[in-house]
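Hey, resending since the last one bounced:
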Amino acid sequence: MSSLPYRVAIIGAGSSGLAAAVKLYSSESARPISATIFESRREAGGRTRSFTDGESHDTLDNGQHLLLGCYTSTLSYLRTIGSKHLLQKQNSLEIPYMIPGEFRSSTLKLAAGLPVPLNLLSGLFQTDLLHKYEKIAAMRFGMGLMMFRYDKHMAHASCAELFKFAHQPVTLIEKLWKPIVIGTINLPPEKASAQVFLHLMRIIFLQNRKYSAMLFPKVGLSDMLINPAVKYLEQHGCTIKYGENVRSIKHGNNLIYLESDGGNDVFDALIFAGNYHDASFLPEEVQELIPPITYSPIANAYLWTDKKIIGKPICGFIGTSLEWCFSKPTHTSGELLACTKSAADGLIAKENDEIANIFWNDIKKSFPGSDAKLLRSVIIKEKRATPLLNAELQLHRPKTRTPVPHLYLAGDLVQNGLPMTIEGAVRNGQKAAAEVLKGI
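The structure tokens again:
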């Protein structure tokens, strides 16, 4: 058995690359691990990071992320890097919805003490979000989901085609299914992969009652997901090269030859967890695995108000441009609202002030009794928030293993049946690291 370190290159210091490195160093290995992360930016985090607002000194995330109890890989990762305590967890799924057109609010809440699927049935029966015929249709859909009634017809289908096949009322789609599809897959039902939606619904609602509970970070995403991982890796001897672009990757003799801004290196294995739209340096046989990718944008707005409006961790909106609002900690105002619109093709080209006004008007319509005033806004546009996960992309997502020995793929694009989420990225990073460890 060789006592020389097993040299692993990781491209990308986003949540997937960091999760891969943490997995390598936290697992038992036949040989010591020596990992080097190449990150083209000057900081770690990729699309999952936060920053300090210069005027308010509040911590703002680069984009809002919904975290759920079914994020088992993410929770394992946070436990290893020592930041799981920075999550606030619901006992059970509870989301208040504002419906401005009907001048009322409704809550969807699953029963905390009941096992699946009884907790879901109880929640559907008790909510005033849905009418009786909509509840019956939703339960009928759930029964079909449990019996795998739809899957063989849906490999090439969109969620809209799924809902039509399952005879779901238009009103139910608008109130319940559409917000879930857009919030999880970042696409409208007409484009989103039905196969991914079916798989996700089973995980969230039919496996474990804790899986549907929402998780709310007490701090910014960088302080929970990124900075503790960087500290953990540095303590274990991992090298992170910031501002380092990879120029080419070649392979031979069971080794990986990497050329970067800093020179040439030789590694025993490599994990690619970088941007798939800029992967021209990968070997041709690996590039051929990457399908054509287009992206779906997300528009985010941070709104500072002089007094509280929502006062709850999350609020959903139906019938408005605004979809979700999160109440965030603030040092300087009555409330800081983090507002999100996924699949934001119609918003992303607008001026920042116009986006802020659209969201603010939606909030005022949703809370007509509030006299709160908007003090300030910050807009964050994520033009490449997630790959456009339609049925075609879902069928052609690459796998972790590649034709090149000891070269593995990570990142949220890699096939795992999940949408492009933090959980998908972390899970794929851990899986790639597991493949490396098997090969030592």
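Residues 112-212 form a domain with the protoporphyrinogen ix oxidase, domain 3 fold (CATH 1.10.3110).

Sorry for the duplicate.
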